[in-house]
User: Fold this.
Amino acid sequence: MYHLYKLLAVAICTCFATVSFADQRDERPVIYLTFDDGPSADGVTEQLLGVLANYGAKATFFVTGQRARKEPEKISAILYGGHAIGNHTHSHVKLTNEPESSIERQFRKANESVADAGGPPLTCFRAPFGATDHVVNRVADSMGMTSVNWSVDTRDWHPATDDYHILDSLSYLKNGDIVLMHDGPQKREKTVYVLEEWLSMSAHLYQFKALPQCVPYGTSEFFATIDEQEVDVQLEEEDIPSLLNKLRSYRFSFQIDSTEQARAVPLNSEYLASRKQY
Assistant:
């Protein structure tokens, strides 16, 4: 009889524990904020990062190779803030007007600029103007990158778009929406102002995450080798970008969570190895 009571007690405790855990699960809609055309040359990147940090929001920055080359320290700042980075080509050309060799060069040069700035291999891209076709996607796929467009365009890029219209575009978000905003190349103070105003009113309604397609290491287990001793470090998806710079001085390997990531990592490794020859 004692054992029966004991089993019932364990079952009851387990049941309550399960309910308690479920109650703590965040059921709010997930929103993916994205920023194109940066990093900016006028301090907007830093302002955006500050606003996002104030509200615990993660985002994805689709950067061009030209801008990453000129502002490499901002690539580190984006990653340190726990955000993801995507490829937005080297010079913001319309890829569907380009031959295949040029498409490959645009992607490769942008990847190289981010890698030289200390960034990870890029596993996603956003074509300028959203212009993709089967050739663009085939080239990107061969480089381990997935296409990501958007579902909500704030039109902050258009000179005629005022604060009210940007706020209005953010009023009807649903779970999984990808929001298009901009981090350059023109001044984007309006974007910063509206984002802060909107988050101050609405941040509690949503979860803001980096696009999972753009997080190169997923939720892998890292095995960092420090002083010749292997240390098993469990990392959550949102922790990884912010810790990359801290781990970069160490030798480490990692497990791959998907075939896309498996393709991307060797390409980046080959590139880094080739750079050492010069």
